[in-house]
Structures are given as structure tokens and as C-alpha cells.
Design a protein that fits this description.
Layout: H1 7-17, H2 20-39, H3 43-55
Length: 61
């Protein structure tokens, strides 16, 4: 019988296959993405991104 593909199994496999610098870079990327998503809701940033989408020809509503 095949073993189930679990989160714990993926973490263990990543520990054996990735270098510490790769894991640190991944963690830093995730932290930066979370920080950006949290603070991009600021109205000035949101409006500038909205205007950029319209300038690029993307219809958002």
C-alpha cells in the first residue's frame, strides 16, 4: 500500500533536499510577500496600483 502524501512528509523531504540558504531564502520570500499583502491595502498604494492596471489596459471592474 502506498503511503499518504502528507504535509509532514513534504517538510521532511524538503529538509533533506534543500540547503539551509535555500530554506532561508524561501522563508524570507514568504515573509516579504505577507508583509506586502498586509500593507498594500493602504489607500494610496491601492489607488496607484488601480490606476496602473487601467493604464496597462486591464479592466478591473
Amino acid at each position: 500500500m502506498a503511503t499518504a502524501n502528507t504535509v509532514n512528509g513534504r517538510i521532511e523531504r524538503a529538509r533533506t533536499e534543500l540547503a539551509p540558504t535555500q530554506m532561508a531564502a524561501g522563508a524570507l520570500f514568504i515573509a516579504a510577500l505577507g508583509f506586502t499583502l498586509l500593507f498594500v491595502q493602504d489607500p494610496l498604494v491601492h489607488d496607484s496600483l488601480h490606476n496602473f492596471r487601467h493604464a496597462a489596459g486591464i479592466a478591473c471592474h
